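Structure in, sequence out. Go:
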């Protein structure tokens, strides 16, 4: 079968947005190459495999591939005339484009290498990105310029570095899949208009946190685990990759629900995942695929960020299951925090 490529699809998009996506996709090709070379990645004796030996702004152990991936994204975006600035999981503050700060119409936000604790084990990792409008074009973007809810995104996507490298994009008109041809380094268009099944019998959650979960999540998971002996009267399956990109891509291809709810493990943190470069872009893609994305008490795309690295509870996937979980949060007998957290996060966080 002959596939058209990314360029053909970008030609039909708004040119400045297409330019941002083109540069992001180019960075993902370089990251994919480094991931696929594993322990032999790197040049001139400089391996890009293994730990840096330092913690990043999130308080997490940084991998050399985290740093390399961040550099690939920054290098690509610095060349992009439509992007005025960007923010990364790896850096505390946003970067102002050296050449296009006052001319770029868009801002980019990204997690350069999601799931990087998987690298040593050679398990799938990915890159997540989001494109937001620069609301003050002509002025250098400040941190405040990035504080926009996910609903404002003009595009979002991810690259999954798995057995094949896959790029998933949306500019608000549905979901497109591209597969990287490792020989030509071309992104070939492999699926269009992807829709997520509304029903599923598969869920993904880090069950080791069970004792810290809120009541609605306790109920939901215990009912799934009870299977055909419980109120759901059917068996469920559970998955956990520890890489949100891989979890989301599985849901894109065969349905499912992914949960990283707010818990009491570290009460200062309202969730594990970051709003701006993990939850918001994935929520945008989920909605574009006909699925749902919520915190439990509100749509993820309506959460207004307080800070760049803000965390948020995440419940995303097949709409029947997400609707059911929302119902458990609304039920006054189940819910411990609905009134408090209905409108927005009450937390303004400091790092990590
Ligand atoms: P990193 O971006 O720091 O690698 O974190 C990955 C992640 O945020 C997300 O991809 C996973 O769903 C989640 O962490 C896994 O966390 P635990 O398995 O430690 O709960």
């Amino acid at each position: 079968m002959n596939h058209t490529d990314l360029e053909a699809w970008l030609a039909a998009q708004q040119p400045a947005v297409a330019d941002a996506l083109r540069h992001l996709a180019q960075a993902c090709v370089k990251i994919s190459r480094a991931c696929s070379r594993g322990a032999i990645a790197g040049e001139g004796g400089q391996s890009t495999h293994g730990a840096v030996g330092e913690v990043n702004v999130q308080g997490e152990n940084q991998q050399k591939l985290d740093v390399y991936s961040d550099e690939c994204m920054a290098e690509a975006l610095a060349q992009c005339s439509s992007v005025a600035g960007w923010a990364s999981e790896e850096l505390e503050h946003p970067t102002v484009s050296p050449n296009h700060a006052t001319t770029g119409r868009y801002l980019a936000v990204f997690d350069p290498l999601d799931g990087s604790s998987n690298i040593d084990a050679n398990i799938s990792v990915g890159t997540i990105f989001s494109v937001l409008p620069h609301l003050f074009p002509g002025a250098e973007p400040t941190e405040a310029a990035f504080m926009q809810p996910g609903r404002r995104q003009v595009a979002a996507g991810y690259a999954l570095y798995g057995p094949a490298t896959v790029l998933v994009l949306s500019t608000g008109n549905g979901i497109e899949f591209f597969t990287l041809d490792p020989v030509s380094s071309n992104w070939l268009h492999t699926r269009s208009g992807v829709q997520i099944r509304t029903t599923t019998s598969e869920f993904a959650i880090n069950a080791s946190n069970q004792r810290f979960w809120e009541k609605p999540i306790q109920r939901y998971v215990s009912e799934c685990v009870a299977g055909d002996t419980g109120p759901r009267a059917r068996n469920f399956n559970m998955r956990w990759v520890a890489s949100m990109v891989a979890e989301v891509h599985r849901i894109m291809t065969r349905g499912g629900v992914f949960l990283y709810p707010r818990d009491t493990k570290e009460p200062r943190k309202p969730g594990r995942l970051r709003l701006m470069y993990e939850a918001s872009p994935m929520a945008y893609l989920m909605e574009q695929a006909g699925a749902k994305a919520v915190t439990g008490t509100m749509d993820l795309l309506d959460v207004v960020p307080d800070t760049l690295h803000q965390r948020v509870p995440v419940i995303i996937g097949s709409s029947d299951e997400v609707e059911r979980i929302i119902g458990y949060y609304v039920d006054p007998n189940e819910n411990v925090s609905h009134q408090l957290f209905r409108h927005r996060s009450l937390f303004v966080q400091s790092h990590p």
